[in-house]
Amino acid sequence: MRAISSGPMACATFPGALRTGWICAAILIAGSFAYPAFVHGQAYDLLLKGGHVVDPRNGIDAPMDVAIRAGEIARVARDLPPSEAETVVDITGYYVTPGLIDIHTHVFVGNRPRAFADGFSSVSPDDFSFRSGVTTVVDAGTSGWRNFPVFKEQVIDQSDTRVLAFLNIVGQGMWDDAHNHDLSDMDATKTSSVMKAYPEIIVGTKVGHFQGEDWDPFDRALDAAAAAGSPLLLECHLPELALEKLLERMRPGDIFTHAFGDVNDRASVLDEEGRVRDYVLEARDKGVLFDVGHGGGSFHFSLAMPAMEQGLTPNTFGTDLHRGSMNDGMKDMLNIMSKYLNMGMGLKEVVERATWSVAKAIRREDLGHLSEGAVGDVAVLDVEKGAFGFIDAGGYKMSGDKKLEAELTVRGGRIVWDLNGLSAPEWNE
Questions:
Q1: pLDDT average, residue stretch 228-256
Q2: What CATH number did the domain enclosing 189 receive?
Q3: Mean pLDDT, residues 331-336
Q4: Which residues, other chains included, contact 19 with Cβ-Cβ below 8 Å and sequence gap of 6+?
Q5: What are the pLDDT digits (tens) for 208-233?
Q6: Do residues 205 and 160 make contact, with C-beta atoms less than 8 angstroms apart?
Q7: Between residues 123 and 134, which one has the greater pLDDT?
Q8: What is the mean pLDDT of the chain?
């Protein structure tokens, strides 16, 4: 039995009872002796029963049940009684994790149909989040201080997915190459002012896609982040500025995305002999965070694998989700997690980089865990076994025998994705 309705037969179960109040009352009175929890109110709205909980924040890696009430985690414990829940879903054989958090996406679909000549474009968050176990996405600077209110009104406020954002130092956000180089539109004061006006949504500042030798874009973004007391997200699209100098000037907690994306230029984390550069390790030891930022062109096994073997692992698994990357080697967040699972990282470590590590990086420690009172965002994952192939940004394949699949996703206590009908009753019953 995969889905169970834990309460006794409600009045709506009997069509006649809808027309005859005294019958319904009699049923409730009689049923109160056998099902007191139903009469006095179920303790939980939803009970995920029989799964294996992986919650790195709380050090849990064991079979446990997860109960949700009023959109929040009510309890995580062994053998919670099904009779205490309005809805029970049997998830025996699956892993239960906090809802996944994607730190690098592009979801400001109203900014423009095509942001760059190569076809880069944002996607609607709800179309791609829940099916991957993702309950929170962070937009990576698609909007700036000029158009963030439009982004909030058109996308953030309209989405079931929780949408947070890094604010681009460019006022128009990711518009076109001309705006990316317009220093007059890079205002640290106005950027930090907008960040302070929306502290529950904007988690930091972003800089990238600047092709010149001027340090002003980086400096202004850093100033805005410092003024707002938040991290800087650096995209490695600053080819004329040396990576060594960039990392030296980044602060503990700042984030370097596309960390394994540049194979042939000086932005690579590896030197010509395939060793992790000393200044990269120094930045990591200082507290600079490294994000995958896979995208359509920013993740290569030839960098990621040697780096991992030498101890440089990503702190977070940002996808760089956009229309091109989701149809290329990236696929979705679970695909990135599966790559690292097959590269030798343990499941607990993979889950941590998709949940609690992200929450800490964006300074939203209310997310990414299953503590009592935390938001009821949950992913139920299956580790499939078989013969699989995983593709990097260069078109090269890595074979593997494990792949993660999202079976069920819960957002704020509500089931929003159910791949195989775990929560659905059989049609003929």
A1: 87
A2: 3.20.20.140
A3: 94
A4: none
A5: 877 777 889 999 999 999 999 999 99
A6: no
A7: 134
A8: 87
Residue 302 lies in a domain: yes
Mean per-residue pLDDT, 198-204: 98
The dihedral formed by the CA atoms of 54, 59, 61 and 66, expressed in degrees to the nearest 10: -60
The total of structural domains in the chain comes to 1
Beta strands (DSSP E) in 242-328 are 255-257, 289-290
pTM listed for this prediction: 0.89
The separation between the first and the last C-alpha atoms of the chain, rounded to the nearest angstrom, is 12
CB 165 within 8 A of CB 148: yes
> Cα dihedral sign for 27, 31, 36, 37?
negative
Find how far residue 98's CA is from the centre of its chain: 10
Domain span at residue 212 reads 99-379
Angle CA(64)–CA(53)–CA(5) in degrees, nearest 5?
55
Half-sphere exposure of 76 (CA within 13 A, CB side): 25
Return the amino acid letter for 346: G
Average pLDDT over residues 179-184: 78
∠ CA 50-51-56, nearest 5°, is 140
- What is the CB neighbour count within 10 angstroms for residue 166? 30
Q: Per-residue pLDDT for 31 more than 70?
A: no
Residue 410 resides in a domain: no
Mean pLDDT of 399-413: 98
**Is there a domain that residue 323 lies in?**
yes
What residues contact residue 78 under an 8 Å CB cut-off, 6+ apart? 63, 64, 65
Within-domain flag for 186 = yes
In this structure, of 37-41, 49-53, 58-62, 159-163, the range with the lowest mean pLDDT score is 37-41
Measured distance CA(142)–CA(152) in Å, rounded: 12
In this structure, the strands spanning 3-5 and 72-77 are unpaired
Joined together, the tokens standing for residue 95 give 């892993």
**216/195 Cα distance (integer angstroms):** 20
Residues facing residue 105 across a β-bridge: 139, 321
**46 near 415, Cβ under 8 Å?**
yes
